[in-house]
Amino acid sequence: MFINTISLSNYRGYKKADISFGKSVNFFVGNNGSGKTNLLESIYFLALAKSYKTVDTSTIKTDSEFARITAKITSDKDFSSKIVISKIGKKISINNKEIDKLSDYIGKIKVLAFLPEDMDLIKGAPKNRRYFIDMIIGQFDKNYLIELGNYKNVLKQRNELLKILSENHSKDFTLLDIYTEQLSTSAEIIINLRTRFITKINDELEQMYHYLSANGKKICFKYNPLIERDILIQLKEKYQKDIFFRTTSVGPHRDDYDFLIDDIYAKDFASQGEQRIIILAILLSIANIIIKEKKVKPILLLDDVFSELDYLRQNQLVKYLTTADLQSIITTTNIKDINNSFLNNSKIFSVKNHLIREDKI
Ligand SMILES: Nc1ncnc2c1ncn2[C@@H]1O[C@H](COP(=O)(O)OP(=O)(O)OP(=O)(O)O)[C@@H](O)[C@H]1O
Ligand SMILES: [Mg+2]
Known about the structure:
The protein has two domains: 2-110 and 296-359, P-loop containing nucleotide triphosphate hydrolases (Rossmann fold, 3-Layer(aba) Sandwich); 126-261, Glutathione S-transferase Yfyf (Class Pi), Chain A, domain 2, CATH 1.20.1050.90. It has twelve helices and 15 strands. The chain has helices spanning 36-48, 102-105, 120-123, 126-140, 142-168, 174-213, 231-237, 239-245, 266-269, 272-294, 311-323, 340-343; strands at 2-11, 14-20, 25-30, 66-74, 78-86, 89-94, 97-98, 111-114, 219-224, 256-261, 264-265, 299-302, 328-332, 347-352, 355-359. The strands form three sheets. It has a six-stranded antiparallel β-sheet, with helices on one face. It has a six-stranded mixed β-sheet with strand order 8-12-13-3-14-15, with helices on both faces. A three-stranded antiparallel β-sheet has the order 9-10-11. It is globular and about 75 Å long. Adenosine-5'-triphosphate is lined by residues 12-13, 30, 32-38, 58-62, 304, 333.
């Protein structure tokens, strides 16, 4: 899948921008605050129909009433996609026909993004890892998100009930039994889907990490469900504890993941650059799973990806993207370390004060 062109009107700092992308690697080079992330975010917005971690309206240029993103996409068929964002909402069209249901639209443009915020994946709180994995599994399997929604609803009701039981010193567990059974059914489905997905990532990860890190170390992505077997029994065993603490102490909402390099926990020792390589290796592993299962090549959005990567690793990444024939959009403050042989096969744009022009080398 390719994004051929994008036009922005009043999007963040861009009054107007028209870009024609190359089918392989595209570099957007510019100083801090020049508009690189804003451009990448506009593609993310187009794909997911929402801004990344900000409110949609903050993407409208400060002196404007609305923002517009239009793009020409090549997939099985070519299509055009348009999003108009205004203070009262957003309108999405495909081939100039307005879409009523967001769920009919999301997923048509497949992107995988690496954003600086993703750096807290390894050392940050477990909830970052859960969110990251949940969103990715959700892209493959809409039922996963539905099940996760069910689980969260029951969990909320169960936690409210635990508070009541605790306050009333009640021993009537009739309703608690019902919620616990519902929670257990949902938990089992979620844990199974997570386990299966992590196995799939691990099948790709070793080779990808080896390539990007250019070292012979072994990597393992581990899923550590708090409860795996006899879920209902284990939830029931925790009744007294859960009532005392007024919350559900075990279940997929408390699960965590770990990365091990040569059997050592990455969260304890990995440097900034090493963490970046692990995350990139995961992202590219996921790209491979998408290619195999969905028969489509996702577009990669890599924001400020070269920071903390040395000469060798920067070039390994670009080499991989070039040979795997993946369209990628990379922002960076400089490309001085990238080999000319790769630059010759890429498109290079310079970004200055939210003005973009293509550079010829
Ligand atoms: N809604 C908006 N209207 C106008 N300008 C905006 C809006 N939102 C953000 N900006 C401007 O965009 C600029 C930031 O751009 P961006 O984040 O794309 O920079 P960058 O090139 O990625 O920089 P860095 O290298 O530091 O990551 C800020 O200076 C901000 O003022
Ligand atoms: Mg930026």
